[in-house]
Task: inverse folding
C-alpha cells in the first residue's frame, strides 16, 4: 500500500496535534522572571523616553543656543574686527595726527627755523645788501641815510619774500603730509560711523569691508565656489543675520580665516 | 479576567492549565526539550504581555497556540539560519505498510520530526499539523509559496523514508 502525502500528514497530525508533555517546573520560574524583567523594563520605558526626550531637547537647545552665541560671537568678532579695523585706522589716524602734530611742530620748527633763518638770511642778506648798499654807498658815496632807509625795506621785502617762499614750502609740506592723512581720516570716519549707527549698518559695512577685503583671499583658493559663496553670502546677509551665520559657515569652510570659521569647522 | 490585572497567581494558573499542551506543540518545532522549553517560555511571556489583546474571538487555547507557534518560528529565526538544507532525494512513492504505521507511537513520530532540518520541520508542522496553507506559511515564514511546497514535499519524503526503515526493522523483528 502506497503511503500518500495526505496519509503521512494525517499520521503525524493525528498523533501529534494534541500531543502533550509536562515541561520542567523551572520554565514557569523563567516565565515569571521574564515577566518581571519586562515589567521593570515597561516601568523604566516611559522614564527612559522622558529622559531621552529631555536630553534631546536639551541638546537641541544647547546646540541652538550655541549657534546663536556663535552667530553673536561671530557678529561680535566681526564687530571687533570692524572695531579693530576701525581702531587700526584710528590709531593710524592718531599716528598720522601725531605725525602731523609732530610734523606740525617740526614744520613749526622749520617755520621757526625758517623764520629764524629768514632773519638770518635777512641778516645775512642785510649785510650783503648793506654791503651792496654799502657798495653804492661807497660807489655812490652818497649820503648813507637814504640808502640805509631804502635798504631796510628792501631787506624787509626780501625777508617777506623768503618767509613767503618758506611758508609756501611749509604749506606744500603740510599739504604733502596732509594729503595721505585725508583718506585715513575718511576711513576713520567711515569705520566710526557704523559703530555709532545700527547693527544692520554695521553688518552692511562689515560686509562691505569684508567684501572689499576678502575677495583676494577667496580668489586665491578657488574661484567658482568662492564666487558662489560670496553671492550667497551677500544675499543672505542682506536678508537676515542668522543666514549670515550660515554664510559664515560656508565662508569658514571655504576660507577658514574668520573666527566664525573655526566654530563652523567644529560644528562640521 | 484576573490575568489581565497581571496577578502572578492567575498567570501561574493559566500557565499550568496550558503548559503541557503548548509544550507538546513547541516540541514539534524544536530539536530537543531544552529548545522547546525556551520556546515555551518566550511564548508564555508573550501570552501574558498580549493577554489584553485577546478579544474572546475563537478559543482561548487556539489563541495561545498561535502565539506559541509564532514564538517557535521566531526562535527558529533567531537561532537557525533560514537555510534550505538540500538533502538527498528519497523515493517518493516507496510502499509503506499501513498496518505497521499504527504501531508508531507519538513519541517516535515526534523524534522523526525533530530529526528533520529546522526549515523542513517548521514547514511540515505548519502545513500538516497546524493546518496552514502554503500562502499563509509563505507569509509567516517569509519564503515563497513554491519554496514552502518544495520543502514540504521533501520533508514528507524524508519522513516516509524513515518510516519505511522502521517498517523493515519491524518486519525483521516480527520474522
Result:
Amino acid at each position: 500500500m502506497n503511503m500518500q502525502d495526505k496519509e503521512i500528514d494525517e499520521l503525524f497530525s493525528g498523533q501529534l496535534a494534541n500531543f502533550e508533555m509536562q515541561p520542567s517546573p523551572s520554565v514557569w520560574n523563567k516565565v515569571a522572571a521574564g515577566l518581571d524583567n519586562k515589567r521593570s523594563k515597561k516601568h523604566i520605558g516611559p522614564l527612559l523616553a522622558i529622559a531621552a526626550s529631555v536630553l534631546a531637547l536639551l541638546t537641541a537647545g544647547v546646540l541652538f543656543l550655541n549657534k546663536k552665541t556663535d552667530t553673536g560671537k561671530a557678529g561680535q568678532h566681526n564687530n571687533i574686527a570692524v572695531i579693530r579695523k576701525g581702531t587700526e585706522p584710528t590709531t593710524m589716524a592718531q599716528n598720522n595726527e601725531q605725525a602731523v602734530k609732530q610734523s606740525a611742530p617740526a614744520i613749526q620748527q622749520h617755520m621757526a627755523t625758517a623764520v629764524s633763518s629768514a632773519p638770518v638770511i635777512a641778516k645775512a642778506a642785510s649785510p650783503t645788501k648793506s654791503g651792496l648798499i654799502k657798495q653804492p654807498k661807497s660807489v655812490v658815496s652818497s649820503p648813507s641815510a637814504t640808502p640805509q632807509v631804502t635798504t631796510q625795506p628792501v631787506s624787509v621785502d626780501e625777508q617777506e619774500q623768503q618767509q613767503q617762499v618758506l611758508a609756501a614750502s611749509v604749506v606744500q609740506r603740510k599739504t604733502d603730509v596732509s594729503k595721505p592723512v585725508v583718506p585715513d581720516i575718511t576711513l576713520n570716519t567711515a569705520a566710526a560711523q557704523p559703530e555709532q549707527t545700527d547693527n544692520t549698518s554695521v553688518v552692511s559695512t562689515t560686509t562691505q569691508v569684508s567684501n572689499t577685503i576678502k575677495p583676494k583671499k577667496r580668489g586665491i583658493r578657488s574661484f567658482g565656489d568662492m564666487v558662489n559663496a560670496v553671492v550667497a553670502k551677500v544675499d543672505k546677509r542682506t536678508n537676515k543675520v542668522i543666514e549670515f551665520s550660515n554664510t559664515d559657515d560656508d565662508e569658514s569652510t571655504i576660507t577658514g580665516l574668520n573666527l566664525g570659521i573655526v566654530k563652523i569647522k567644529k560644528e562640521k | 479576567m484576573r490575568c489581565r490585572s497581571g496577578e502572578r497567581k492567575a498567570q501561574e494558573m493559566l500557565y499550568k492549565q496550558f503548559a503541557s499542551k503548548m509544550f507538546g506543540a513547541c516540541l514539534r518545532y524544536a530539536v530537543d526539550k531544552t529548545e522547546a522549553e525556551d520556546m515555551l517560555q518566550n511564548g508564555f511571556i508573550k501570552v501574558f504581555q498580549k493577554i489584553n489583546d485577546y478579544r474572546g474571538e475563537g478559543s482561548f487555547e487556539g489563541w495561545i497556540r498561535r502565539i506559541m507557534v509564532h514564538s517557535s518560528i521566531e526562535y527558529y529565526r533567531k537561532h537557525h539560519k533560514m537555510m534550505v538544507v538540500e538533502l538527498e532525494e528519497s523515493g517518493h512513492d516507496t510502499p509503506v505498510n499501513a498496518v505497521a504505521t499504527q504501531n508508531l507511537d507519538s513519541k517516535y513520530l515526534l523524534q522523526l520530526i525533530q530529526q528533520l532540518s529546522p526549515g523542513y520541520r517548521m514547514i511540515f508542522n505548519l502545513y500538516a499539523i497546524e493546518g496552514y496553507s502554503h500562502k499563509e506559511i509563505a507569509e509567516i515564514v517569509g519564503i515563497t509559496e513554491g519554496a514552502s511546497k518544495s520543502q514540504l514535499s521533501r520533508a514528507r519524503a524524508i519522513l516516509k523514508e524513515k518510516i519505511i526503515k522502521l517498517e523493515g526493522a519491524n518486519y525483521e523483528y516480527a520474522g
